[in-house]
Amino acid sequence: MTQTGVAAPARIEVFRHLFGALTEEMGAALRRAAFSPNIKERRDYSCALFDGSGEVVALGDHMPVHLGAMPMSVAAVRDTLGTLDPGDIAAVNDPFCGGTHLPDITLVSAIYSEERTNPLGFVASRAHHADVGGAAPGSMALAREIFQEGLRLPPVRLQRGGVRVHDVWRILLANVRTPRERDADLQAQIASLLAGERRLLEIAGRWGLDAIAGAMRELREYADRLLAEGIRRIPDGTYTAEDALDGDGYGSGPIAIRATMRVEGDRATVDFRASDDQAQGGVNAVAAIAVSCVRYVFRCVVQELLEVELPAGGGDMRRIGVLAREGSVVAALPPAAVAAGNVEASQRITDVLFEVFALALPDMIPAQSQGTMNNITVGGIDPRTGEPFAYYETVGGGAGGGPTGAGLSGAHVHMSNSLNTPIEALEHAYPVRVVAYGLRRGSGGAGRHRGGDGLRREVRFLCDADVNLLAERRDRGPGGRSGGGAGAPGRDALRSEGGERTLPAKGGVRARAGDELVVLSPGGGGWGEPDGDEEEAET
User: Fold this and answer.
1) Dist CA 122 CA 109 (whole Å)
2) DSSP H helix total and E strand total for the chain
3) How many Å apart are CA 455 and CA 419, to the nearest integer?
4) Which of 114, 220, 263, 324 has the greatest number of beta carbons closer than 10 A?
């Protein structure tokens, strides 16, 4: 029994739920207060709680690609700005300083109690903003260097002592196309931090400061023990796999991502150093993305092996070493363009890691999922208001079939955990009409357990607009496993009075009012030898 009279295992479980609920409450506050459909409807955000030394304690059930990298953002804030005093709020989006790509802005604040001068903990909120400047609306266009992708924020204070730092806000809002929306969404992020602070102080008031600090430490230690046990259940050995990105949009490709996993006892190392050099186009991932992918895949595998949820997102993951060569496509250096690294390279890194685990645990790993987020950005002048607009969307696709059943259809997979923008919200917020939206029947790979089907989404523009795409799995579809077939690759097209023409997977086009964008997302791979008639995929 502890000093609180609660047995240690029960105490750990109680606090795991308390801290997890805190991060979910932060997310709910952000979602309710946000202005943009991308945050309010698609839920493209993540929230997390850290202890007083900056170690992760709880991650909301939000975006895996955000969550695994957020500890680096908190570390960057603390290393750059030093102490965050009560009422201070820091912001960072620099991918080379703990960020992922420029549209993802992370806010961080420290939580203090009246009894102590050191922080009780930190809370962080990351949200994808629909525009942060750059060469094209939506800040997700094909680019050769990061300066073309938008405004880059090293760790800076947005708020000091509870008062807005107006100079920083003015610089930020002067460099985006939709300043009112950005201002409102940033204020919603601040509201989420305040919700987390209020809840942690309430928990501390009930249980005591020493109990809170002890529970945070115990959760990390418990997560470490679970992770060690999970790794022990992976057969010792060295496993190597590779996959490739279609290309960088400037003619280079395929771009190989290679991983070697070495398992020995309760420790593992993942080595990406054989991956190709960073590319000219923005498919490059920074090191934080590679670490985030490793955290996600190990969390998935260990939870399946142990049939238990890993608290604290797996803790500090110190039992897993990650090796990446600086200047490679998985550890890019400035001034590399990185907008698609967060959304496309992250999916391919994840695919490669699951291929590695398929060698170690062949009866457990499903076939490949769609392997892309099918990024769409649209911008122009809304004829209803005369104001600029910036619309960002990712499109779900097919999940891979697995040993226990078929893959999900029309789902966001792996490093993406967002929703779609509902048709009603989309047409209300932007000058577009959804012409068609449904499953792409038969696009999932054949197999004993079929891959999930991709989606067909057709959108008509009601005004002239700049349209940019960043997508993958257009050259070849996601692979099957254990004899299953590959899913159908994706396709993008623009339909106008002159007919329909296929668009490159990465790049931009000027659309006219009345033109229609057609997106066919990939299906997931099938699992196992097929045993019946299969549907033909839509083209």
Assistant:
1) 6
2) 10, 20
3) 13
4) 324
Report pLDDT for 1: 42
Regarding predicted confidence, which is higher, 68 or 35? 35
Residues 6+ apart with CB under 8 A from 498: none
**Distance separating alpha carbons of residues 149 and 491, to the nearest angstrom:** 24
CA distance 409 to 398: 5
**Which residue shows structure tokens 């009866």?**
363
| Position 305, amino acid | L
Helices (H), 208-319: 209-232, 287-306
Distance in angstroms (rounded) separating the CA atoms of residues 285 and 99: 11
Q: What is the DSSP letter of 411?
A: B
CB atoms near residue 422 (< 10 Å): 13
d(CA 229, CA 243): 29
DSSP 8-state class, residue 107? E
Q: Which two tokens stand for residue 267?
A: 């420790």
Whether the CB-CB separation of 409 and 534 falls below 8 Å is answered with no
Length of the chain: 539
What are the φ and ψ backbone dihedral angles of 260, each rounded to 5 degrees? Answer: -120, 125
pTM over 0.90: yes
CA 19 to chain centre: 21
Q: Which two tokens stand for residue 341?
A: 């690294």
**364 phi/psi in degrees, rounded to 5:** -115, -25
**pLDDT above 60 for 537:** no
539, pLDDT greater than 80: no
Alpha helices in 370-455 (DSSP H): 423-429
How many other CB atoms are there within 10 angstroms of residue 462's CB atom?
A: 16
- Asked whether 490 and 522 are in contact (CB, 8 A), the reply is yes
507 pLDDT band (50/70/90 cuts)? very high
- Tell me the per-residue pLDDT of 293-349, one tens digit each, with 9 for 90 and over: 999 999 999 999 999 988 877 778 899 999 999 999 999 999 999 999 999 999 999
> Looking at residues 422-437, what average pLDDT do you find?
97
* Burial class for 461, CB neighbours closer than 10 Å (0-12, 13-18, 19+): buried
Residues forming beta bridges with residue 89, ordered by sequence position:
159
State how far the Cα of 421 lies from the Cα of 427, in Å rounded to an integer: 10
Tokens representing 141 are 């266009």
Query: What are phi and psi for residue 50, nearest 5 degrees?
Result: -130, 155
Q: How many CB atoms lie within 10 A of CB 431?
A: 21
Instruction: Write the burial class of residue 230 (CB in 10 Å: 0-12 exposed, 13-18 middle, 19+ buried).
Output: buried
At 354-390, the pLDDT tens digits run: 999 999 999 999 999 999 999 999 999 999 999 999 9
